[in-house]
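Technical annex, item 7. During the second reporting period the consortium partners agreed on a shared format for inverse folding records so that results from different sites could be compared directly. Each record opens with the tokenized structure and is followed by the designed sequence. A conforming record, contributed by the partner at site C, is shown below for reference.
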């Protein structure tokens, strides 16, 4: 009985410690292409490959690791990243991606190109450089040749093949930026970007609104319908802080405002656009406090501007009466209690204690009717 137990123990030891384990072979899908003497291997999907656990052959010749460049990424080689290698000749007939297994190597991907055979021994010299990418402000995502590197500025992209490359940056709240930059072997090129904010606001005031006439605009012969109002902060010409409306004959848009030291009705501007029924218009009035200017825009385009008041003065204080126009009219002096009627629809009226840039005005117009 003791002998049988010992025999079983020996057999178990052989199975556990002497029989080699079966190695797991990674699964990889790679798109292999060539352009002249350059071969590109795009990792489409599968298991990431650690450096030193694979190699590439061309026409049966193994490529040295020093002649492989991982573009815009870092090991392990992963989906979305590219390997690039350069040769002294374009006579490239077949390319293989080989996993360096133990004890047997396995071909993971291969391709055969048509063309004459010839000497295509790889030139195993350093053909890569690097980009040092910075931006103001920092933290922008970096794309290299349309591939997301997964990095943000400031960052250095190593193993970039010699030649021209496109760098794109993306940061929330800023316009995208890009540049074409050349890199040479054994060198680091600085790629510096200054990002432009999407919306550069300034001290001042902005009023915006969408308006549509449901009937042909009244020519203003009726005292109740002259100066059809979109929105006003005030109850008379002499106490209003601002007024977004139409002119006396409802043939143009009008923006009026009064600065702190100006008495009376203040200053006004007319648009060049003549409204028609059934069409939405995006109308914006802006007071830029620093230079002391006002401007009116229609559908994202500035149509008139001028200097008003004193730079950095600010607007007249609000009389505490904020009124939205419409068919019922607004409270205004005249033969009836409600005047300046607008036979149509008004949407998206907003005010801001800042002066919009023209880029932001255009962006709000492009966003469409709320």
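Designed sequence (site C submission):
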């Amino acid at each position: 009985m003791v002998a049988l137990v010992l025999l079983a123990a020996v057999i178990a030891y052989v199975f556990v410690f002497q029989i080699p384990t079966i190695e797991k072979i990674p699964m990889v899908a790679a798109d292999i292409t060539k352009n002249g003497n350059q071969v590109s291997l795009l990792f489409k999907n599968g298991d990431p490959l650690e450096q030193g656990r694979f190699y590439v052959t061309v026409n049966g010749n193994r490529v040295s690791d020093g002649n492989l460049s991982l573009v815009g990424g870092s090991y392990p080689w992963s989906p979305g990243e590219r390997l690039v290698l350069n040769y002294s000749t374009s006579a490239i007939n077949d390319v293989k991606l080989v996993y360096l297994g133990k004890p047997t190597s396995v071909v993971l991907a291969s391709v055969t190109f048509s063309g004459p055979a010839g000497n295509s021994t790889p030139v195993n010299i350093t053909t890569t450089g690097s980009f040092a990418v910075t931006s103001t402000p920092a933290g922008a995502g970096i794309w290299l040749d349309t591939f997301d590197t997964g990095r943000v500025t400031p960052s250095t992209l190593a193993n970039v093949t010699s030649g021209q490359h496109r760098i794109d940056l993306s940061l929330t709240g800023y316009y995208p930026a890009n540049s074409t930059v050349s890199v040479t072997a054994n060198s680091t090129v600085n790629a510096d970007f200054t990002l432009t904010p999407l919306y550069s606001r300034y001290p001042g005031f902005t009023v915006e609104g969408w308006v549509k006439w449901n009937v042909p605009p009244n020519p203003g012969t009726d005292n109740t319908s002259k100066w059809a109002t979109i929105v006003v902060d005030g109850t008379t010409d002499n106490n209003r802080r601002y007024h977004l409306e139409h002119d006396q004959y409802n043939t143009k848009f009008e923006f009026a405002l009064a600065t702190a030291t100006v008495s009376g009705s203040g200053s006004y501007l007319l648009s060049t656009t003549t409204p028609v029924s059934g069409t939405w218009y995006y109308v914006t009035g802006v007071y830029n406090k620093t230079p002391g200017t006002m401007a009116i825009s229609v559908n994202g385009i500035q149509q008139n501007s001028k200097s008003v008041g004193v730079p950095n003065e600010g607007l007249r204080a609000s009389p505490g009466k904020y009124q939205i126009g419409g068919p019922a009219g607004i409270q205004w002096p005249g033969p009836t209690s409600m005047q300046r009627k607008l036979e149509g629809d008004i949407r998206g009226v907003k005010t801001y204690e800042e002066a919009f840039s023209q880029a932001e005005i255009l962006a709000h117009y492009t966003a469409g009717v709320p």
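Residues 117-125 have pLDDT under 50 and may be disordered. The first helix runs from residue 2 to 18. All partners now use this format for quarterly exchanges.
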